[in-house]
Amino acid sequence: MDPLYGDRGRILEYFHSHGILVDPKALDRILKSNTGLLVESMLSESVRSNGYLSESEVISILRNGSGVTQKRYEVYAPDIRVRSSVDDFRNYFLSRYSKLKKIISLSSAMRGSFPIKSAKKVQGEVKIIGMVSDVNITLNGHKRVVLEDHEDQITVILMKDRGVARELILNDEVIGVVGSVSHGKGDPVVFANEIIRPDIPNRFIDNPVGEPAYVASLSDIHVGSKTFRKQDFRRMINWIKSSGEEAETLKYIILSGDVVDGIGVYPGQEDDLEVLNPMEQYLKLAEYVSEIPDDITVFLMPGNHDIVRLAEPQPVFPEKIRKEFPSNTVLLPNPYNLLLEDRNVLVYHGMSLNDMVELIPGMNFDTIGGAIEELLKRRHLAPRYGGKTPLIPASEDFHVIEKVPDIFITGHVHSHALGNYKGVRYVNSSTWQSQTEYQKMMNFSPKPSIMTLFDLHSRSVVTKSFES
Ligand SMILES: [Fe+2]
């Protein structure tokens, strides 16, 4: 029997001392396993390299006795410190808070806001900015939100008969509240009149005319999978090589993650693979990319199927992979804000979209544009910490959308959604994979083989379908 068995605190401490973050669900699995299995056996090569122990890895270990989703190809050495402590979490959330507070403070509605500690002494109207540490519904049906800043916390009530109660408030998001302080028997409480989000500001948007310069967005290619749509991808590559008008003005291509199918990503994936070795999957992709004319820059970003650390921010691909790609390929971490021809192009693979779909009532993969807009409204790529999106508590929160993007590119959910939110053109970038067994189970039909082209000058958008 493992001496750590059953002791939540000591198990966590053990992993943290090895620089490993543990998914809360993984920890629950270990505690519930009743096997007394050595916690040490969870420290496989892949867990060490990823710096993260996921629930699926624990399930696999418990099932097999030892070893993890063992075939995950050699993993890139993390570019930021993975070892985490209480201080790291504190610094991470402080970074998130201060970046978003700065943006919210720009809103004229928040002029004259107070720190929570001072706001508690105010009589009447007050403006505060805080991070949501809890949301629940009171017995009387009002929404009760606990807001925190770096030194204090306060309860905010959103009365059920007021419009403000319809606001979707997520844990860990940072919001501004305009309301009035009520001093009763216990701690003061704020009754909210208005919720102020960091949001995308209203601004002047220029649409200059001139020679078009297109950036193409392609996502979730999944080379190596049996369901990779080879023929469609081939037609698309041939189109890029052709000298059509649009093809000639194509200057950049962004591959925003899940460029290959990988291995060991989910139990039983081997059965779905045509190419088992991930390195060979990357070589196949490199062959396609080599056909792209070298005056087009190709940006390559990892996603959750790729071989870098799963926890975000994900580092760029290792040298071993980069050297297989031609010199017009540029590696990007996930997420990343690119500056192309003076336009801000925010690229994020999109893992948090799974969480958003669960958190937003009525949301599904077919209406994913709504979820993308909720991210923009919150100026954060993964507002809720600790859902299905593993995040490294680095000393800086890289998921805050600090610069207002001109174009916001995501993928991951294999849908295709185009939209314009307050002047930000966004897309969920399709896929080059047919419906998978998982999607069949979820009753979701992907929208495959679509290339989305943004003109960086006029901001117009064109889509091209290569679906056969
Ligand atoms: Fe993905």
Can you walk me through this structure?
- With 468 residues, the chain is α/β, with parallel strands linked by helices.
- The chain folds into three domains: 8-64; 112-196, Beta Barrel (OB fold (Dihydrolipoamide Acetyltransferase, E2P)); 214-465, 4-Layer Sandwich (Purple Acid Phosphatase, chain A, domain 2), CATH 3.60.21.50.
- It is 25% helix and 22% strand.
- The protein is built from 13 helices and 18 strands.
- Helix 2 (24-32) runs parallel beside helix 4.
Number of domains: 3
Task: Give the integer mean of the pLDDT values.
Answer: 89
Placed side by side, the strands forming the largest sheet appear as 11-10-9-8-17-18
The percent range for helix content is: 25-40%
What is the CATH class designation of the largest domain?
Answer: Alpha Beta
SS-based structural class?
alpha/beta
What ligands does this structure carry? fe (ii) ion
Largest sheet at a glance?
6 strands, mixed
Tell me how many strands there are: 18
Number of helices: 13
The shape is: globular
End-to-end CA span = 57 Å
Radius of gyration: 24 Å
Residue windows where pLDDT falls under 50 for at least 5 positions: 65-81
Do you know the CATH architecture of the largest domain?
Answer: 4-Layer Sandwich
What attributes characterize this protein structure?
468 residues; alpha/beta; OB fold (Dihydrolipoamide Acetyltransferase, E2P); Purple Acid Phosphatase, chain A, domain 2; five-stranded mixed barrel; 13 helices; 18 strands; 22% strand; globular; binds fe (ii) ion
